[in-house]
Specification:
The protein contains one helix and 14 strands, in the order αββββββββββββββ. With about 190 residues, the chain is mainly beta. A four-stranded antiparallel sheet has the order 1-2-3-4. A four-stranded antiparallel sheet has the order 5-6-7-8, with no helix packed on it. Strands 9-10-11-12 form a four-stranded antiparallel sheet, with no helix packed on it. It is globular.
Length: about 190
């Protein structure tokens, strides 16, 4: 069994004990060296990998998605909807205010932290020729103007540790609207 699977199994046991009820439908887990972050009941929770109680990290917004640890494990970035607009937020594990990073009306979704540890990668329809295609952006985790990356459209992405290579997919998976047996040119 992989380390990530063991951590997720620990998450289910630890969190169900800490929440006082069986944990059902925890989504979007991400694992750091010693903690697991996940979404449960419209909130971001964090729990130690080894043993301990899950703690509420953030309940800002609705439908939080894709929480991701920074490389140093000290911050978590995620997407959430506030007033029907999904933006990117950053929470420090040492406390303090949760910072809103993006401020435009297009829907933003967290992809990952950039290897520099200071920037975030997110996808958005903000500069797409058609609002059904996402583009990939890089923005400072403290906020600022996003920089569009030179891809026509993207759905998922991962960047190498040295920042020199980018893996990405163009389309959503079949569960998100693309036909399961699609054989077209963008398969």
């Amino acid at each position: 069994m992989s380390t990530k699977m063991i951590c997720i199994a620990s998450l289910l046991l630890v969190s169900s004990h800490a929440l006082g009820e069986p944990l059902r439908f925890a989504t979007y887990p991400d694992v750091s060296a010693d903690q697991v972050v996940f979404v449960y009941r419209d909130a971001i929770w964090i729990a130690p990998v080894a043993d301990g109680a899950a703690q509420l990290l953030s309940d800002i917004g609705e439908r939080p998605r894709n929480p991701k640890f920074s490389a140093d494990g000290q911050k978590v970035a995620y997407a959430a909807s506030v007033d029907d607009n999904q933006d990117i937020y950053v929470a420090s594990l040492s406390g303090g205010d949760i910072r809103r990073v993006t401020y435009h009306p297009a829907r933003d979704d967290m992809v990952d932290w950039h290897p520099d540890g200071k920037s975030l990668l997110f996808k958005s329809t903000m500069q797409s020729p058609r609002a059904i295609y996402n583009r990939l952006f890089k923005v400072d985790a403290a906020g600022g103007l996003p920089e569009v990356l030179p891809l026509p459209y993207v759905e998922t992405a991962a960047i190498s540790g040295d920042g020199s290579q980018l893996m990405f997919t163009y389309l959503r998976g079949f569960r998100e609207g693309v036909g399961k047996r699609y054989l077209g040119r963008r398969a």
